Amino acid sequence: MIAANRDILAGARVLDIASHDGRWSFAALQAGAARVTGIEARKELVKGAEDNFAHYDIDPTKYQFICADVFDALTTEDLDVDVVMCLGFLYHTLRYNELFAHIRALRPRHLIIDTNVMPGQEEPVIRLVRDKTAKQQHAVADAYSHNGRALVGKPSTPAVQHMLETYDFEVEDIYDWQSLIAQRPSVTGVADYSKEKRVTVRSKLQVA
Ligand SMILES: C[S@@+](CC[C@H](N)C(=O)[O-])C[C@H]1O[C@@H](n2cnc3c(N)ncnc32)[C@H](O)[C@@H]1O
């Protein structure tokens, strides 16, 4: 997700959507990003990210973590970005129109999406799933969640492509996880990628 995108991350202002404990923001800076902004709704994770960055003595002018619901922050914050990373979030929402419209309005050069997908599905479809809002990895409670659950969707890979193309993002690459994993058979924790249940898609905004 990071090494393969070093060319677009170098010198870039990066927005990390659902930044969790800052792991991918940190990696983006290590890859040469000029500055990262993370948006994460869970307070304890934002605190974790700030502690992590302080621990590694990262220049405070190079990062910012906004503790907010991503849909609120994308509406209210004034963000200047070159690359948007939307990693591990697309299957924790159903609000695709809003998400993509907001991202497009930022006019980033590139958008990188890493997401769980429905394997083997050739149609652009979404499977409805319920997230438990109490779980740290899941959707946060919001005005639309109910009884501790949020309706979210798991897209097929063609659905991810469809969403991107609808908002003028041209797919540049769907990362070849299978080849990477085949070269490193001892690596664990990547089963979703090897079973094609998860993809990483790099796209570029086509500006008229
Ligand atoms: C599966 S984790 C992915 C974290 C990280 N981006 C990664 O790839 O490792 C999903 C993250 O989305 C955050 N999240 C869920 N709903 C959110 C929302 N509406 N606004 C902001 N963050 C949200 C969760 O708190 C969690 O940190």
Verbal overview:
- The chain is α/β, with parallel strands linked by helices.
- The protein has a single domain (3-118, 156-205), classed as Rossmann fold.
- Helix content is 30%, strand content 27%.
- A 7-stranded mixed beta sheet has the order 3-2-1-4-5-9-8, sandwiched between helices. Strands 6-7 form a two-stranded antiparallel sheet.
- Helix 4 (70-76) packs parallel to helix 5 (96-105).
- S-adenosylmethionine (SAM) binds next to helix 2 and strand 2.
- S-adenosylmethionine binds next to helix 2 and strand 2.
Short summary:
The protein is of the alpha/beta class and 208 residues long. Helix content is 30%, strand content 27%.
Output the keywords.
two-stranded antiparallel sheet, alpha/beta, single chain, 208 residues, Rossmann fold
